[in-house]
Write a structure and sequence with these properties.
It is a single chain. By secondary structure, this protein is of the alpha+beta class. The chain has helices at 15-20, 31-38, 55-67, 146-150; strands at 7-11, 26-29, 43-49, 82-93, 105-120, 127-129. It is globular.
């Protein structure tokens, strides 16, 4: 844990997984979020996997990864509510050829590191100083469990 940066950025799954695995080289942000002091941030940051992940968000990430020949883990296997790794932010761009870029701004990512065991902690909007909560990661919602996931098209 001593190798992890003090500042973290919350990212929803499955995007957080793709970042810490070194697959996703751009983290998309709104103009509002990057102009609140985040535009000029550079350096290494911890990646916090947000507690929230809707079925729609998961399917969107799953489909994009499938189009890139990346096997996205099932939703129940994605940790939520804790620090899952770290990455370096090297730039903020308005356009990119990366398949991960959707804009309107993109934080350019390099040198990802994935933790073997996520560290439970509370998240916050934007960059925040994190600390371990001593609690547990969020349990998968019903739709995230194997039976719910395989029935994803049935509108459970």
């Amino acid at each position: 844990m001593s190798d992890l940066p003090d500042l973290a950025l919350s990212v929803r799954q499955p995007w957080a997984w793709a970042i810490v695995c070194g697959l996703k080289d751009i983290e998309n942000r709104t103009v509002f979020s990057v102009t609140k002091g985040n535009l000029n941030r550079r350096g290494r940051f911890a990646i916090h996997a947000s507690k929230g992940m809707t079925r729609e968000e998961y399917v969107q990430g799953y489909e994009l990864m499938r189009s890139l020949d990346i096997a996205c883990p099932p939703p129940g296997a994605l940790p939520r509510g804790g620090i899952v790794g770290a990455v370096e932010i090297v730039d903020c761009v308005k356009q990119s050829d990366s398949p991960w870029f959707f804009g309107p701004r993109g934080l350019v990512l390099r040198n990802a590191m994935r933790l073997g065991v996520p560290i439970p902690c509370s998240g916050a909007l934007g960059f925040f100083k994190w600390q371990p909560s001593g609690g547990a990661l969020d349990a998968p919602a019903k739709w995230m469990r194997p039976q719910g996931f395989f029935n994803i098209s049935e509108g459970e």
